[in-house]
Write a structure and sequence with these properties.
The chain contains six helices and twelve strands. Strand 3, helix 3 (68-75) and strand 4 form a beta-alpha-beta unit. Helix 1 (3-12) packs parallel to helix 4 (87-95). By secondary structure, the chain is of the alpha/beta class.
Length: 234
């Protein structure tokens, strides 16, 4: 099923009746409003605005969704490629006028080299598990130009495990507290769950530096969210 893509197509085609639902292993159920995925630059959070303004050269927008980031960059004159594993999402990107689109799993993608790789909306979590992040960064490095950069945001969700006394209760079975399983629901159906993670900046920096990147904190939000730049070392 491509429930995510179907929801985006429905909104694009004027058939918006309900929002996406996200389910996580934290036993949380949240709505993901479809209009949010079609936002323009002025409607984007400051973190995303900072990321887009930090782009340089040719850009690969990984997990582009409805293509709002790609569309802005294209309008600014960037050579941008919108990539998503969802055929429905890429269909919407094309309908919105994005010129360069790719339906692909980033884990197996290979192609043009880029100056900037965008991993927004916690896109770094697409690596699935923290212990796979190093290999994922090595893969991204294969299509990143010399001196290229990765712009990625995430959130340190340690606060979700905080007790009233200020201590933290993290389930013993977790290898890392930011690792979760997610599923997407739409119109009474639910996709299969998939692994994802949120990562704190210090751990991200340590892993990035171990794999040949420098890692810089570009923005820190009010709710433990942040934007990082990983620069490929010569």
């Amino acid at each position: 099923m491509d429930l995510y893509g179907q929801a985006l197509q429905d909104y694009q085609d004027g058939n918006y009746t309900e929002d996406l639902v996200t389910y996580s292993s934290l036993e949380q159920e949240d709505l993901l409003p479809l209009p949010h995925l079609f936002r323009n630059f002025a409607e984007m959070p400051q973190l995303e605005q900072v990321a887009l303004q930090g782009c340089k050269g040719s850009v690969l927008d990984v997990g582009c969704g409805a293509g709002s980031h790609s569309l802005y960059l294209q309008d600014q004159g960037f050579e941008v490629t919108a990539l998503d594993a969802s055929p429905g999402a890429i269909d919407v990107c094309r309908k919105r006028g994005i010129k360069n689109t790719v339906v692909a799993d980033i884990h197996t993608y290979s192609g043009t080299h880029f100056d900037t790789i965008l991993l927004l909306m916690n896109g770094i979590g697409i690596a699935g598990k923290v212990n796979k992040l190093g290999d994922f960064l090595e893969h991204l490095k294969t299509f990143l130009k010399p001196g290229g950069q990765i712009l990625a945001d995430s959130t340190d969700i340690l606060y979700m495990y905080e007790e009233e006394d200020g201590s933290y209760r993290i389930p013993a079975h977790k290898d890392y507290y930011g690792e979760l399983n997610f599923a997407i629901g739409y119109q009474g159906k639910r996709d299969n769950p998939f692994p994802w993670f949120y990562i704190d900046f210090i751990l991200l920096r340590d892993i990035a530096e171990a794999h040949g990147f420098s890692c810089e904190l570009l923005y820190s939000g009010d709710h433990y969210d942040y934007l990082a730049r990983l620069s490929k070392k010569a």
